Predict the 3D structure of the following.
Amino acid sequence: MAVYTIEFQPLGRRGRCRDGQSITDCARGLSIGINYICGGVGTCQSCKVRVTGGTVSAPTSSEMDAFSPEELEAGWRLACQTHPLSDCTVTVPAESMTTPQRTQVEGLEIATEPEPPVRAYDLQLKAPSLSDQQADADRLLAALRRQHQVHCRRVDIDVLRALSQQIRSRDWQCQVSVRDDEVVAVGERAARQLGLAVDLGTTKIAGYLVDLDTGNTLAARGMMNPQIECGEDVVTRISYITGSPDGGPRLQVLAVEALNQLAGELTAEVGESSEAILEAVVVGNTASHHFLLGLPVTQLVAAPFIPAVGHALDIKARDIGLRIAPGAYVHLLPNIAGFVGADHVAMLLATGVWQEEGPIVALDIGTNTEVSLVCNGRITAVSCASGPAFEGGHIRDGMRAAAGAIERLRIVADSSPGGLVQWQTVDDAPPVGICGSGVLDALAQLYLNGIVTREGRMVSDHPLVRGDGRQREFVLAGGEERSGRHAVGITQQDIRELQLAKAAIRTGIQALLDNNDCAEEDIRKVVIAGAFGSYIDVSSAMDIGMLPSLPRERFWQVGNAAGAGARLALVSTRRREEARTVASRVEYLELASSPNFMQTFTEATYLGRYRLRHGSRQEIV
Amino acid sequence: MAVYTIEFQPLGRRGRCRDGQSITDCARGLSIGINYICGGVGTCQSCKVRVTGGTVSAPTSSEMDAFSPEELEAGWRLACQTHPLSDCTVTVPAESMTTPQRTQVEGLEIATEPEPPVRAYDLQLKAPSLSDQQADADRLLAALRRQHQVHCRRVDIDVLRALSQQIRSRDWQCQVSVRDDEVVAVGERAARQLGLAVDLGTTKIAGYLVDLDTGNTLAARGMMNPQIECGEDVVTRISYITGSPDGGPRLQVLAVEALNQLAGELTAEVGESSEAILEAVVVGNTASHHFLLGLPVTQLVAAPFIPAVGHALDIKARDIGLRIAPGAYVHLLPNIAGFVGADHVAMLLATGVWQEEGPIVALDIGTNTEVSLVCNGRITAVSCASGPAFEGGHIRDGMRAAAGAIERLRIVADSSPGGLVQWQTVDDAPPVGICGSGVLDALAQLYLNGIVTREGRMVSDHPLVRGDGRQREFVLAGGEERSGRHAVGITQQDIRELQLAKAAIRTGIQALLDNNDCAEEDIRKVVIAGAFGSYIDVSSAMDIGMLPSLPRERFWQVGNAAGAGARLALVSTRRREEARTVASRVEYLELASSPNFMQTFTEATYLGRYRLRHGSRQEIV
């Protein structure tokens, strides 16, 4: 019997596949979690992969349904329907993976030539004597000049405080870490120089421990942002600050202590302590950036929405309470506007789209969604108040993507009355709620199956619909009330929330297109960044009119690109310069004052696939 | 009757003098405190002045006694014996003034072309709007570029924290203070920019509030160094640190809180607050410098006596707890060695002697006495452990120069048995003790009157000598026990302490001369800096062999030259560069390991006037 080797990208895993097995079979054998909602019968279309090398079986009828001829031509297949006929390379997009696997994908490395801001030098000092009484710091700087031709003028005060004891206890041997013309750390000779990159999100904080000399990520870790105790979104947190004199300091401390915890945990993973971190880069939205630095925010939320600072900052870590190497700095990438922050800059930097010709749409979906359009060398950006619906907020059974959250959902034709609802939960746990990607799938499926109209009204005459008014609900799971569990459903009110959220995003994209006099269909690429954006089924997003309807291959779900951008900036001063260029080139458009704003927004609340242009909507037949 | 105008320098005061009045009469009329020990009869020779303009009466016999023909030729006179015959200019050396007046002299300004490290710019910002959403800090920097052609890249984080509110509350007008490429303060438009210069002495701290743009001293203030609670001298304080884990932090806090208090008091004098201070310069001996910065000191007191840092430092004031303008820096001049600190550099800078050809001896007398010799373009320095005797320490009736301290003393021929002891006390209060300058006078007078031998033994057969052994004592005042006050005297043990102290200084001077193969008599100038050095009678110092015997006009008592150097460095970046040059050019000699050290020291314990050279002593006849 023939056995083939299948290589799964971007995970970089290889496995053996016996003749007759499907790609899904092979993947499951390797514990690669490819979606499997319908149990492998080809109906849920949630296991889309792209075969980029080798020969596979001919498309089945399920696959002919799932893909256009162009997509099939480009290698798009359903993993459960496809049987390798030779060694193959298979690319699995994030959306086709189950949650734990997607988390791995988020760790994708974007290679860059390291040009670290901090460099280490080994020194052997001559011990002083009565005939050579040069001061310790001066001796160190002279040795740097003589032994390494490095002309350094300053030694950080905290480094100075420890220096005399350090060099004496190490018999006058040491490693010196230099940043610009300043010594920021002195210690024992270490094999590697550590840096910390942080994506400080409103809800989640992602931290990466990076080898500054190689650019390799040594450890990665996420945690909830503890500032949630002061409000779920930035506007609530700003109200918390304006309402209490201790509010600002409280938010500052919560943020920095979270970073201290992350630094401690990440370094512990590699057997080091936080003090070994020689440089940090933090990106976040403008408000989170301001919270972390203790900058004023009241002017951020009142027109004309002005950040305290836009340009990139280099701040002594101790000045914000970050406990890493004594003299280390934290670098903050530039902010673009009050609601387009350094995280967006980092995303543009990591994806590189800012240097392309376009038209390219790049967006990071969250409570606040930032969108940029790269078009003919011009970059314009807007910020859309998309609200917390996609993070499970304001949705009756909404929850984060934790165990038991419905993350994928299909309604398939079946003998059941009204069809069968198939779902997949995080960790395959019994369903207890629905997370953002599940909500998106649900709305798309309800619309496609005629249970919700294009205006967003839920029909009353469907077997799985119950209740009335805003409480009218479509039961997704648990309706049979077996095992006493509460049913999980989508309500009419949930749908209204989702319509507002997705309309905000679509309006933002449209405002940029209109401003650049660019048509939707000309968009060459749509970059979707951020945790939520990586999880969504792009087809569902198009089906509900959240994203313009475009060929599937034009979408690029990049995971936590802000974190990737932070890592690039961490290890490369040239990338920091690039980030400055990016930020200075982006023109911010105030969405609310763009032409046809209300008109576009109203049209964008419609479900289904349609084209928008200058405030008018045209159905795609 | 003729009336003349007399100008007193360096006080810059003018007064009218009637025909027949003495210079002393005129001075007292102006409340200028010229010494007056003998009541104006010309016997105490303590009112030496120099007439530098105008015509005065012919020298009296007292003046012929007091001065050499060359000195008289140069204008030296006794103020009580001299009657102006025209408008005159009279220079009063510090040694001829009473204590309160000398304190004023210490405020002497040494003019420099201000090149302040911090410059202020007035800005009128354009208010932001929905069509102009530039961030506050970026707007500020852009306005600096546009309105003043100042290219500034950074805004201090603490300035950033206050900026948004500041510019909004001031209707977008503000004054920006720039240091190098950083904004260190933003505030309302101020008429002047303030700086703080501090001479951080072991015993006393002198603070000066300076206008950075003009270089003028606006206020000056002295205070006791509160670190005295941890030890009277630096060695005791270092023991305090090594003996307690909280010792270092305690000394650091004491020092910086003293500076904070000084800053508060000085700025209050001119109607400002400490936050208006935009830059500080601190000079002190190496140990005090290290205490203030929280640097380690154990390596300072053990051979080979190494400072943690020698080069000049620019440190954020907040990093040492100094509460001045939010982003302000404190600049610390370079240290030369473990026991020759930035205060000595400041003194060399202020006096300018480092640029002269020499031979010049420059010394700052204190518990530790630093001496430099400038000779043929070479500068060598030593440090002498002179002890606290000159500050009243280890002297039975010793005290600081406070009210009631005997500060000047003469023994004059009289019908009293053994002569009459004449003295002057600080503030003319009843005598309660004796301060450094009084101790020096006392020893000289005892030696000159044969009551103490050149070996330092007090004779037993003098009417005013009583007691025996090390307790043998010469009663200076209060011996009659009227009004129940304790007698003030000098004991045999006091004399031994003084011999060791003065021998240490003379040995230091001699080691430098020997090292440069230079003879004492070739010294062109002796610069005596520091509080004590300004108060001493130089003739007394020569009579006890503390200083080489040289013509009176070669001595220059410069008061607190370290404070003057700190002020120069405060207002001029060029002077800071000069200080770096000075520090790098000074060669430090370890006194204890210099040739003939013990021999020279032994010879230098002798009283009287003599020449030393390579360890041998030759009396001056």
Notes: The mean pLDDT of chain A is 90. Chain A has five domains: 3-92, 118-187, 194-332, 343-388+503-619, 390-497.
